[in-house]
Amino acid sequence: MIGQPDSVFKDRHYSLQALISLTTVNYIVFALLVQVCVNCERVHWFLWVGMAGLAWYNYYTIRRNTEEFEEKKTQIIYAISLLGMALLYYLLGVVALHCKPVAAV
Hints:
Shape: elongated
Transmembrane segments: 14-38, 45-62, 74-97
Number of strands: 0
Strand content: under 5%
Radius of gyration: 20 Å
Keywords: Membrane, Transmembrane, Transmembrane helix
Largest sheet: none
Structural class: mainly alpha
């Protein structure tokens, strides 16, 4: 019988399934919130409620998958995805609306 090396069970490779699903949900929900709640005059209060719900979902998902999110590579990818959401806000909430600056009276 062939023996198994000890490192097989120590070197667990976690898939990126939780990170991919979390990032996908973040981008879809955030894009919908920006499209619905942002216009040239103001930002609707529901954007902040939706962002709080999204933050709670992120916290819950990261706590549920702590082993996967302990890896440095996963933390870097998650931080870059959050920066990408800021870029998405700029593109959808500022550039796409073609708002003209308000002239001072």
